[in-house]
């Protein structure tokens, strides 16, 4: 599979069908009639009734027959399908009913943000764009993860590092969850930036050459995490539990500031020791 850009109608069709099929009729007070149901989830006519549209309209949407639902219809579909907030935003993006957050994707850091990243020491910090391209970082982040300056620019991408860097891909204790959440973020970004060829090319490359990415991408999870926890296991330092925060500047909404903080005292001591040690070459 290759990806040259978002086909909103086709992706909208597949996404609606996937979300309809994951629903349990019993949760809506509908009889299961499992023997009579050829596919899992709700029937099209049941979703149509819940959303207040015709069954034919749902059929045409799921067949990608050129419809562009209004914001009101998108909202009704989101309620009917019980979409999570990130999934709801994704549906609005596919229907092209949500304002874009940036006219042009960021490829260089805003100078003030680059200065802020440096001044956040001793907290490990870095600046990313919606593609997970790493635009700026401080010394603590390089000692926690990798010397970004030594990498080719094409490899300064958090998703690429997690999937392909021989050391970093082994750092994450719960690696599949980290990869799954990263892919769910990329899918959301893919809908917001349908004309971003660099993002589409990145996704196409992962789909063509990484079986794990292709498998998780096909699940069509959509999620945007602003905070959470990751546990790293460094051969030279042991386990480090980290809480992370992702902040989005109002004046530069395409750039994201990522901060790590130790989640417990033992991790704090380990992190302090790691980031204060000069890297060996």
TrEMBL record:
Q: Which GO terms describe its molecular function?
A: DNA binding
Q: Where are the transmembrane segments?
A: none
Q: Per its UniProt entry, which superkingdom is the organism in?
A: Bacteria
Domain named HTH cro/C1-type is located at 34-88
PANTHER family noted in UniProt: BLL4672 PROTEIN, BLL4672 PROTEIN-RELATED
Q: What is this protein called?
A: Transcriptional regulator
């Amino acid at each position: 599979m290759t990806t040259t850009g978002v086909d909103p109608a086709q992706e909208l069709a597949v996404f609606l069908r996937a979300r309809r099929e994951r629903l349990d009729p019993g949760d809506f007070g509908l009889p299961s009639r499992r023997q009579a149901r050829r596919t899992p989830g709700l029937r099209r006519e049941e979703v149509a009734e819940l959303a207040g549209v015709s069954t034919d309209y749902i059929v045409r949407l799921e067949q990608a027959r050129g419809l562009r639902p209004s914001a009101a219809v998108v909202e009704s579909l989101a309620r009917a399908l019980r979409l999570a907030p990130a999934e709801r935003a994704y549906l609005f993006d596919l229907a092209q009913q949500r304002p874009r957050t940036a006219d042009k994707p960021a490829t260089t850091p805003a100078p003030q943000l680059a200065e802020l990243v440096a001044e956040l020491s001793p907290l490990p910090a870095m600046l990313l764009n919606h593609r997970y391209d790493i635009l700026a970082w401080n010394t603590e982040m390089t000692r926690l993860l990798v010397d970004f300056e030594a990498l080719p620019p094409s490899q300064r991408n958090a998703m690429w590092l997690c999937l392909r860097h021989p050391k970093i891909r082994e750092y994450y204790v719960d690696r599949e969850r980290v990869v799954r959440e990263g892919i769910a973020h990329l899918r959301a970004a893919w809908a917001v930036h349908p004309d971003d060829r660099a993002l589409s090319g990145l996704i196409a490359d992962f789909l063509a050459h990484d079986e794990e990415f292709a498998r998780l991408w096909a699940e069509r999870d959509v999620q945007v995490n602003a905070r959470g926890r990751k546990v790293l296991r460094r051969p030279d330092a042991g386990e480090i539990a980290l809480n992370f925060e992702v902040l989005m500047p109002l004046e530069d909404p395409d750039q994201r500031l990522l901060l790590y903080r130790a989640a417990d005292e033992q991790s704090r001591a380990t992190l302090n020791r790691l980031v204060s040690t000069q890297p060996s070459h």
